[in-house]
Amino acid sequence: MISFENDYSEGAHEEILRRLAEVNKEGITGYGNDSYCESAKEKIRQACKCPEADIYFLVGGTQTNQTVIDSVLQSYEGVIPAETGHVASHEAGAIEASGHKVLTLPQLEGKIQPKDVADYLNQFYSDGNHEHMVFPGMVYISHPTEYGTLYTRGELAELSDICQQYHIPLYLDGARLGYGLAVEDTDVTMEDIAEYCDIFYIGGTKVGAFCGEAVVFTKENAPRHFVTLIKQHGALLAKGWFLGVQFDTLFTDDLYMKISKNAITTAARLKEILKEKGYDFYIDSPTNQIFVEMEDEKLKELEKNVRVSFWEKTDEKHTVVRFATSWATDMRKVEKLGESL
Amino acid sequence: MISFENDYSEGAHEEILRRLAEVNKEGITGYGNDSYCESAKEKIRQACKCPEADIYFLVGGTQTNQTVIDSVLQSYEGVIPAETGHVASHEAGAIEASGHKVLTLPQLEGKIQPKDVADYLNQFYSDGNHEHMVFPGMVYISHPTEYGTLYTRGELAELSDICQQYHIPLYLDGARLGYGLAVEDTDVTMEDIAEYCDIFYIGGTKVGAFCGEAVVFTKENAPRHFVTLIKQHGALLAKGWFLGVQFDTLFTDDLYMKISKNAITTAARLKEILKEKGYDFYIDSPTNQIFVEMEDEKLKELEKNVRVSFWEKTDEKHTVVRFATSWATDMRKVEKLGESL
Amino acid sequence: MISFENDYSEGAHEEILRRLAEVNKEGITGYGNDSYCESAKEKIRQACKCPEADIYFLVGGTQTNQTVIDSVLQSYEGVIPAETGHVASHEAGAIEASGHKVLTLPQLEGKIQPKDVADYLNQFYSDGNHEHMVFPGMVYISHPTEYGTLYTRGELAELSDICQQYHIPLYLDGARLGYGLAVEDTDVTMEDIAEYCDIFYIGGTKVGAFCGEAVVFTKENAPRHFVTLIKQHGALLAKGWFLGVQFDTLFTDDLYMKISKNAITTAARLKEILKEKGYDFYIDSPTNQIFVEMEDEKLKELEKNVRVSFWEKTDEKHTVVRFATSWATDMRKVEKLGESL
Amino acid sequence: MISFENDYSEGAHEEILRRLAEVNKEGITGYGNDSYCESAKEKIRQACKCPEADIYFLVGGTQTNQTVIDSVLQSYEGVIPAETGHVASHEAGAIEASGHKVLTLPQLEGKIQPKDVADYLNQFYSDGNHEHMVFPGMVYISHPTEYGTLYTRGELAELSDICQQYHIPLYLDGARLGYGLAVEDTDVTMEDIAEYCDIFYIGGTKVGAFCGEAVVFTKENAPRHFVTLIKQHGALLAKGWFLGVQFDTLFTDDLYMKISKNAITTAARLKEILKEKGYDFYIDSPTNQIFVEMEDEKLKELEKNVRVSFWEKTDEKHTVVRFATSWATDMRKVEKLGESL
Predict the structure, then answer these.
(1) Out of A191-195, A305-309, D327-331, least confident range
(2) Which of A271, A294, B294, C234 gets the highest tally of CB atoms within 10 A of its CB?
(3) D317 C-beta neighbours (distance < 10 Å), count
(4) Residue closest to C163 by CA, chosen among C125, C196, C126
(5) Neighbours of A (≥3 Cβ pairs closer than 8 A)?
(6) Top-tier CATH class for B2-7+256-340
(7) Chain A: which residues have CB within 8 Å of chain D?
(8) What InterPro entries would the database entry show (chains A, B, C, D) (predicted)?
(9) Strand ranges of the sheet holding B199-203, from the earlier edge strand across to the other edge
(10) Nearest chain A CA: its distance from B199 CA (Å)
(11) What is the CATH code of the structural domain delimited by D14-253?
(12) Quick one: average pLDDT of C239-260?
């Protein structure tokens, strides 16, 4: 069985394994107050060219979204994502469980359109009844999106402008950030993200780490007593250094970007193969997630040899599935798939 | 500097490191639906002699308490701990943030007294106004307690009886469970815990793992859709197998108990030394946490060479500090402390 | 100025005023444990032909929705309304503030379609990822809807069937229930509502009372300790009898239905007049709310003499406004409007 | 049966009844945006000599406490009351249900001691672990307390000083405020309360109104979008004017104080009688609640003719009961009690 099921089925980059073994018995102070976390933060600040960034390490994506969104929003505020955004659809109501409405906008290839955001905000404040409604308190985007697509630099700038105009933060979920930045055609850099977004997180779980996400507040805008808020959300790791060491490794010698490129290279070859074999792409994704629409019969055949993710039914006879590559995908596995198709 | 600061400053047992490296590139399915988790669960069931136990792996202690307590309680119910219980004092309000009152009882050496629990429950239902009050919905104990002390088998049986009488579960926080079970004098076994408690968790973070706690529902009493509830609390690890492998290792060849013993042996020697040197124990703890009351001046002196945890002030000139050993404590470090005192 | 602004701008029916004055100094026990509440409940049970119904009196609509929905749902569940449902749009996030997602479906004339509900539920359970999603735990309808429209008996039966199939309750928000039942053409009776709905509430605030909503659990399905839950939601009135007396009055000699009819009769005449004057109805509402779409210029003119509610903009030059009648609307006011147009 | 069960068993002062009937059919705009609310607010501002006060009307006490406390606190903060404070004991967990811990201090005659508050705050910030604890974010007092006792002007000033020093608000629950201010011996005026407290509420439910509490923010410190927050807590009354008219009446010609005095006069006579008859006062309360400790046998006897409230058991044979008078208590009822004892 050849698996392209997801991008979180391997462990950690071997350099992380090596360093964890190295510091394993050192005896390091708890809760992230250690030199490895400090070093990792400093390297991330440099990678973002954002020397004043305030950085925190959390364990997973849903946890990070819940903790950040709940901590940043006022209790009368909700968050605006695309209807396909992770916070809207696949977090089991984690945002609502912490008291906030998710105010979804339509998606286009997994993205929200700046114009839709502007219209929504404008209309909200025009509505005479808006005191009886949830205030829009944050715009949430994922980059890459849940459909593997990317915002352009222009779109980020536009979204940032709109958010500034309404005095609400722009928050970017970068669970797969490396895979977005490693695409050749993108005009978006880490630095751009730090400039346009008020808050973003750099995904570790899907890009080389056992687990871990680095939340970056770029505008001296971390919530007061954020450590207490992290603790309150059950998200403060006793061995914070376990995350610090991993991010310190990922941001040493550009490792994060180097290993991200592997996902893109293998995905590109995979797309080539799928195209040759006559598969139909459901969406044109430049990153490590490839969405293919197939007849159910053909899918059954495929699943004899290949593990992919079910995505959605498009009609009674067709299904969208996802092939995912990652930092750990071996090109030989891709070629092997080609042979087996 | 010799550190006895806490029991979570080292990483993972080397056998865990070895196995993580071994499976690192295997490509394992996500969210705990993997064979390592299954194997770990089976081994835990055997260790508890509780074949029908339902087991889940979470990342940290506060997260586990919050997720379990919120999922098990009805919304009109609160949880009863000792006033020194972790959920009452050091979780930044995680229980209240999920909507539940913490109904504290007085502590005696860190423990709640069965009689106090019985009186509380009896009085609650005698109060004509109890419909305007939070219903007691669960009894929470930590074993070892936050003061390193242990319940006896008789006390557990008594608490269990009271809980059954009022149809509420007994929940045991076993963040340091191994250290409790490894004490020679205790009459409490893992099997007893599974028998008397409706829910308990086996701490990994403080006993040999990078992170991870194994929640055990012993009476076919896991909440419906508990995976969804874990997800909603931001507590579902994408790479669930990362926890599974660690617990599978800890419960292979009795490793969990073997390494727990080291904490007790080193603590025993440490107590001997402290006693010889004339230190006063604040509480008589049989486990890996040793509480010493000192004059502030003497403490200042000590802290030049030794790192301990501040616990509390007893008066203006005296302070209680904690020395902690762990699975990873080297006896030579203890002896070195003896020399330096 | 002639006002058709809303249906809650008058106080209480004079018979209620009379009875409140009558019992004012009686000295009645608190929190709804009084004979007026008991009597009102009994009369409502008779009106519903539902002798086993469990009934509670709350103060307002949003409060009732929040308390009922939060108390009935499990924490992993959300509620399914139309996107125009009150709980989805105009309760300032009260449902989310109590931890639950609002799972909106498209609306057709303010109603959800049984087929859409069935499809949603079917698709949810077909989705392999549904453990990471909010479970649908209740269907919410308003009757009349926020657009004044009504479900048919057939639609209620169908919705009820679907809910039963998925073991989730059907909840009907009857803030304006009287106005729905008083329509001549409707085939839905109070008895039907008690039969098809698991929970519904009978609106008092908009139908003759100063305030008050009567929640009816029709299937012996009131949540355990519901009084405690009401208290916890800040919704338990000390002088519960103040609500009891009002509902007792409204359900004596069919007063509730009689005064509801006045809203329908005056609305019918109002519609006639508006039609004669060439106004365009935005939606065909048989109840006491009339939605008219107008050019903004014409609206400005109208607003010199008449107070209506802004509803929504349909384009840059057109607006939908609402005319509302009520139990207290004097027909002479309607005729006066006719003259002034 | 002569009842001294509580102070909320009568309806509204007859002048309120008269005015409600007067405006009943006027057609008044909703949600508190009406001239009666405005007028009531202005009169309250004058009564407090606090022209810049921001005032809101809510329906009941628990609702008011929940809405105010949740809206004012940050999510990492809790509220500090006496252990006997209403928010700590008899609100069914309403504060925790909105996410906040109740940080109780010991009570002395129902009051918290300024020194205890200062010590708590000082100790909190001295604790090295306070980032893992709930931050104290507000001090809550009731005046009169749940035991009928009163703070002195000096105590209020001291509490105010401490709160200012730690930058947290002092909040006074005035569910029975009138009864506190009407005591002859008190040195506390409404003006003092507005000066020393950052927020307080003036109870209507227990002092002459059907229902209603007026929340006063004295330092231009109302939470942003407080109307939205009220709505979100299910506490925004559609017919806001129903509360406005009541408070407007209560604050016209000093009615609130005049009728409050009746409770004090009748309570004074009641105490005299009880003293004569040899009853033991459990606590020395100067206001309208009188606590008497009795042998259970004697209590049984008493309850044949008199309705009082059970308060608490002091031992197996003794019980504390409460006699309450109110604005509506007829002196003849008191004398009749005297005769029957």
Answers:
(1) A305-309
(2) C234
(3) 10
(4) C196
(5) B, C, D
(6) alpha beta
(7) 70-71, 74-76, 99, 131-133, 135, 224-225, 227-229, 231-232, 236
(8) ArAA_b-elim_lyase/Thr_aldolase, PyrdxlP-dep_Trfase, PyrdxlP-dep_Trfase_major, PyrdxlP-dep_Trfase_small
(9) B54-58, B213-217, B199-203, B170-174, B135-142, B77-80
(10) 19
(11) 3.40.640.10
(12) 98
